[in-house]
């Protein structure tokens, strides 16, 4: 059994450097991971190598991420499933601070990179999920059309097929809308009127005499100065809208409907008016949109009956024939 963090209990000398202390801790952590991994039924032995970058006080130099390599030795006749390999990766990621799953590599004694199968399996799960969702949408549309056609032509006199093109892109849109009517936020007005009297006459004692009693001063001897200032600050209103479009939207819908010719009301063929009414009914029922480019095809043919013979053992030695109908082009 490999040594784990128990080795840290050993007394270290006074002159042990920080590098040796970190190396002992990393070695003990690797041993603990090995103990946990070999406890799995399909694994007989394992080794773990951790690459933990040294922590520094400088933020710009902390750009390296820790990584790990795991080598496992499988028991004879045993193999690991992608879910089990993913569990080992999550075990290592949860044991080291700041480690990401894409920086963990898992190989076996044959040199096979098992962690690569986990990434491809995750992609396959996502694709299978999208495909299953698309099939469910098509089934719902077929059921809508069948619910409308069954009361008219019967359950065995029509066939409906749907092909839906889905968009699973994840789109997020941010819009900033400005208001077209600005609002006055601040207004500052200044008005200043100044009237000064102009000194007239010849400088000297005669010009400094007081005005004669009863004499009205004229505007010619006054200087008027008027100043007006208006300052307005407008505020434009805005609103921010964030829209996240749902995944799995229908880009295009193609619906094909096949009717049994003998199921027509007259027993021979469907008239153009009847076909137009059925087309309108199916279009409204399944939600066909012309703006989206959807299409609907309505065809009618004679369904060929197929005779099926039941085994004699089921009928007490007697042979009985059953007939059903299928479409022929």
TrEMBL record:
Localization: Bacterial flagellum basal body; Cell membrane
Domain (Flagellar M-ring N-terminal): residue spans on this chain: 3-115
Domain Flagellar M-ring C-terminal per the UniProt entry, residue ranges: 149-303
Purpose of the protein: The M ring may be actively involved in energy transduction.
Protein name: Flagellar M-ring protein
Family: Belongs to the FliF family.
Assembly mode: The basal body constitutes a major portion of the flagellar organelle and consists of four rings (L,P,S, and M) mounted on a central rod. The M ring is integral to the inner membrane of the cell and may be connected to the flagellar rod via the S ring. The S (supramembrane ring) lies just distal to the M ring. The L and P rings lie in the outer membrane and the periplasmic space, respectively.
NCBIfam families reported for this sequence: fliF
InterPro entries the record matches: AMP-bd_C_sf, Flag_M-ring_C, FlgMring_FliF, FliF_N_dom, YscJ/FliF
A GO CC annotation given for this chain: bacterial-type flagellum basal body, MS ring
One GO biological process term: bacterial-type flagellum-dependent cell motility
Membrane-spanning parts: none
Primary site of residence: other
Pfam hit, one: YscJ_FliF_C
Organism: Vibrio maritimus
Bilayer disposition of the protein: Multi-pass membrane protein
Keyword Cell membrane among record annotations: yes
UniProt entry keywords in alphabetical sequence: Bacterial flagellum, Cell membrane, Cell projection, Cilium, Flagellum, Membrane, Transmembrane, Transmembrane helix
GO terms for MF: cytoskeletal motor activity
């Amino acid at each position: 059994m490999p040594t784990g963090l128990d080795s840290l209990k050993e007394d270290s000398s006074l002159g042990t450097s920080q590098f040796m202390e970190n190396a002992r801790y990393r070695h003990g952590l690797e041993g603990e991971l090995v103990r946990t991994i070999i406890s799995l039924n399909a694994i007989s032995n394992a080794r773990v190598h951790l690459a933990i970058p040294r922590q520094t006080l400088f933020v710009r130099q902390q750009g390296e991420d820790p990584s790990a390599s795991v080598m496992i030795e499988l028991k004879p006749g045993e193999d690991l499933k992608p879910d089990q390999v993913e569990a080992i990766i999550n075990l290592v990621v949860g044991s080291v601070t700041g480690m990401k799953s894409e920086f963990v590599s898992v190989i076996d004694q044959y040199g096979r990179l098992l962690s690569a199968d986990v990434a491809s399996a995750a992609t396959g799960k996502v694709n299978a999920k999208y495909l299953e969702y698309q099939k469910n949408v098509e089934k719902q549309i077929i059921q809508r059309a069948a619910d409308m056609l069954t009361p008219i032509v019967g359950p065995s006199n029509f066939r409906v097929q749907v092909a839906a093109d889905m968009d699973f892109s994840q789109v997020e849109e941010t819009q900033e809308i400005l208001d077209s009517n600005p609002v006055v936020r601040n207004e500052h007005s200044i008005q200043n009127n100044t009237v000064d009297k102009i000194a007239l006459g010849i400088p000297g004692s005669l010009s400094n005499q007081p005005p004669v009693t009863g004499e009205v001063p004229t505007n010619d001897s006054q200087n008027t100065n008027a100043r007006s200032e208006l300052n307005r600050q407008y505020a434009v209103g805005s609103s921010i809208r964030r829209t996240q479009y749902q995944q799995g939207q229908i880009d295009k819908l193609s619906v094909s409907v096949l009717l049994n010719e003998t199921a027509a009301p007259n027993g021979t063929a469907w008239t153009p008016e009847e076909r137009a009414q059925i087309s309108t009914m199916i279009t409204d029922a399944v939600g066909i949109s012309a703006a989206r480019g959807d299409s609907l095809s309505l065809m009618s043919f004679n369904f060929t009956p197929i005779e099926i013979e039941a085994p004699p053992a089921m009928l007490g030695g007697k042979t009985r024939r059953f007939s059903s109908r299928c479409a022929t082009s």
